[in-house]
């Protein structure tokens, strides 16, 4: 399954420095809505018991552990994140709960997995942390490592549909000095997915005027999906 033993470093953002307060901070900033958001994500995954699932940018593993519970020890779920401290927390949570979820330090632009391995790749509130080139790399790598017919589920910031969301999104882009947000705020994620070779790209749900759940599929015919990023 593994393609190489040397872990590369990402040039994108990671949240290693705030890993210790990530869970309580997210819960407070979401006003208690994080669990409902995760539950909504689960309803859209369309899991089957033997599925092989990859969670990219898994953070402290909340969604990964929920997927592991749903697979009920029959499938395989691996969460990766570029932040080693996030992965350390996720592993502790898995150990304390007796979960079979696996966690590894890894980067989205160079997934350390074989071609055509996963049935489903999920990423939640991840792509707005990386620039356009890394988004393109990630989607190509997701395409490569999915089986023909496999699905990509992306839950992330999208073009705002409410004035309040538009103000919040663009204010955040400039206040936080985060140009990585622009592709999302301009609604360009489907274009980037399509450029990587995905088809059947759909917006499954839209929350709070800003967050969209996308579904995309790797074609059964398995045409070329682009070169690997360096």
Q: Superfamily at the CATH H level?
A: Vaccinia Virus protein VP39
Q: The CATH topology is what?
A: Rossmann fold
- The structure class reads alpha/beta
Our estimate of the beta-strand percent is 15-25%
Strand segment count = 7
Strand order of the largest sheet: 3-2-1-4-5-7-6
Order of helices and strands: HHEHEHEEHEHHHEE
Quick one: overall form? Answer: globular
Mean pLDDT across residues: 87
Give the domain tally: 1
Description:
Mean pLDDT is 87; it is low at 1-5. The protein is globular and about 45 Å long. With 230 residues, the chain is an alpha/beta fold. A 7-stranded mixed beta sheet has the order 3-2-1-4-5-7-6, sandwiched between helices. 36% of the residues lie in helices and 22% in strands. It has a single domain (16-217), classed as 3-Layer(aba) Sandwich (Rossmann fold), CATH 3.40.50. The two termini are 20 Å apart. It contains 8 helices and 7 strands.
Helix/strand layout:
Elements: H1 22-29, H2 34-44, E1 52-56, H3 62-71, E2 76-81, H4 84-97, E3 102-105, E4 118-124, H5 132-145, E5 146-157, H6 163-175, H7 181-185, H8 189-195, E6 199-207, E7 211-217
Parallel strand pairs: 1-2, 1-4, 2-3, 4-5
Antiparallel strand pairs: 5-7, 6-7
């Amino acid at each position: 399954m593994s393609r190489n033993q040397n872990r590369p470093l990402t040039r994108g953002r990671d949240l290693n420095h705030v890993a210790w307060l990530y869970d309580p901070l997210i819960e407070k900033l979401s006003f208690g809505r994080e669990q409902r958001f995760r539950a909504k994500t689960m309803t859209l995954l369309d899991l089957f018991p033997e599925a092989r699932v990859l969670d990219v940018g898994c953070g402290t593993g909340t969604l990964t552990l929920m997927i592991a519970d749903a697979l009920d020890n029959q499938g395989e779920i691996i969460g990766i994140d570029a932040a080693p401290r996030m992965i350390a927390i996720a592993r502790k949570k898995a150990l304390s709960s007796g979960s079979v979820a696996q966690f590894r330090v890894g980067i989205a632009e160079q997934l350390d997995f074989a071609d055509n391995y996963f049935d489903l790749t999920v990423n939640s509130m991840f792509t707005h942390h990386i620039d356009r080139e890394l988004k393109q790399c990630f989607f190509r790598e997701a395409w490569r490592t999915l089986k023909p017919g496999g699905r990509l589920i992306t839950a992330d910031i999208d073009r705002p549909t409410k004035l309040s969301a538009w103000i919040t999104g663009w204010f955040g882009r400039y206040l936080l000095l985060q140009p990585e947000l622009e592709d999302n705020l301009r609604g360009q994620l489907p274009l980037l997915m399509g450029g990587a070779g995905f088809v059947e790209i759909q917006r499954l749900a839209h929350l709070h005027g800003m967050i969209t759940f996308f579904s995309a599929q790797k074609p059964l015919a398995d045409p070329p999906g682009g070169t690997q990023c360096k």
